[in-house]
Design brief:
The protein has 156 residues and is mostly helical. The chain is 72% helix and 0% strand. It has nine helices and no strands.
Length: 156
């Protein structure tokens, strides 16, 4: 154990945690959103994705209030797509597929494709979109998503 344990100001992260918890319970305040930085929104959405109690109604209310699906911030859009896919929010699918065909980073592409492969109604559409656009991706990204497709098809 170190002799001195520095005390960091984690008030911003605490605020993100509070907002994520409130959002997961359906408590949505537009004033809170306005007071959050982009990093805090990303943190709150990342935490929201880990919660199992996020309902379709909550996702609809968040989208209506904050329009995260229209974000030009790749991190916000990526995390929002994952939250929506987990909640089975149909309107996000086209936006998520558009995102992964314009943003080639494996950091974004692979998790979204994996999430879509696990959604029975859209898994074939996700595979089709990947196949149509696979030349766009870096070789490593392409081969990893192809392995995910093979794993998905083996488990289906």
């Amino acid at each position: 154990m170190p002799l001195v344990i520095p005390k960091y100001d984690d008030s911003r992260e605490q605020k993100s945690m509070q907002v994520a918890k409130a959002w997961s319970n359906g408590v949505i305040s537009e004033e809170e959103r306005e007071s959050l930085s982009s990093k805090q929104v990303i943190s709150a959405l990342t935490l929201l994705h880990t919660y199992d109690n996020v309902t379709l109604e909550t996702v609809k209310a968040l989208e209506a209030s904050f329009h995260f699906g229209d974000s030009q911030n790749a991190e916000i859009l990526f995390t929002w797509c994952r939250v929506c896919i987990k909640a089975r929010y149909d309107p996000i699918v086209d936006r998520a597929l558009e995102f992964v065909t314009t943003q080639g980073r494996m950091k974004y592409v692979r998790p979204i494709f994996r999430d879509l492969f696990s959604w029975k109604e859209y898994s074939q559409q996700a595979i089709k979109v990947f196949e149509e656009n696979k030349s766009f991706y870096h070789n490593i990204c392409r081969s990893m998503v192809e392995k995910d497709i093979q794993a998905h098809q083996a488990n289906a």
